[in-house]
Amino acid sequence: MDKKIAFIGVGIMGRGLVKNLKKTGASLQIFARNPSKIQELQDANTSIYSEIKDAVQNADFIILCLTEDHIVEKSFMEVMAEPTHATILDFGTSSPGLTAKMHNESIKRGFRFVDSPMTGSKIAADKGEILFMVGASQEDFQDCNFIWEACGKKVIHCGDVGNGQLMKITLNMMQAGLAQVYMEGLILGKKLGLDLGILHEIITNSAARSGISDFKVNCILNNDYSTNFSLKNMNKDLNHSLYIAMSNKVSLPIIHSLKSIYDSGMSQNLDEEDFISLFKVNLKMNGLE
Questions:
Q1: What are the residues facing 64 on neighbouring strands?
Q2: Confidence band (pLDDT; 50, 70, 90) for 1?
Q3: Which domains can be identified in the chain, with CATH numbers?
Q4: pLDDT tens digits, 3-18
């Protein structure tokens, strides 16, 4: 393949995504603030740069795989400063306002823009099993499809630019709510002296089973809070969902209550741990830690 892909943001998810993009045969141009940390990714078809302006030169596709809005916007504007007509894909979860701004700026300067947030763990990124939610024109969706096929198990076209982010923010809000329900169930079980392993077995064999219960409840029971999706990122996405709800006059009573628990987790310096580290906050709230 004679395509060139610039990749900006090789973090928890990015490393696995880059490994799978190598399989496309495209030339990869990776930006990393500390190139020494990802030297194992470099090969004859993969170059590593310490400046965004160098990484995006002559790229056909530019992937932003970043987290917070201010970091995404800063990196985006650095891309905009370079003379290219690439298609930009935002793999992170960005606010609707920033997504609209990036889309409009792209149109003005001759870029094409696609919002393409993803869901899945670090393990899923390594295995190429990510789910992508895409906001794009039909033409851009088809042109970028080889990228999603290399990195994911499924890609869903959600409509025009912006709809991918709205879907992802809504999804994360529901996943955060589900996780809290399971945590409260574990807390109640612990208070009652129940065997939590047996409780998990019952959940797994009932209508209460979900992807969250299979993965995250098992991690909680094993005291494994290693980061697949950080508490600070889930907190960010809850902020997005609450802002969107307020703007559209939607009442979200459960999420409003949940936000206070996330605020407690952030104040207890759990921000870099997985979002299920919120279980520690629930334990303290109930005098169990």
A1: 8, 90
A2: low
A3: 4-160 (3.40.50.720), 166-285 (1.10.1040.10)
A4: 999 999 998 899 999 9
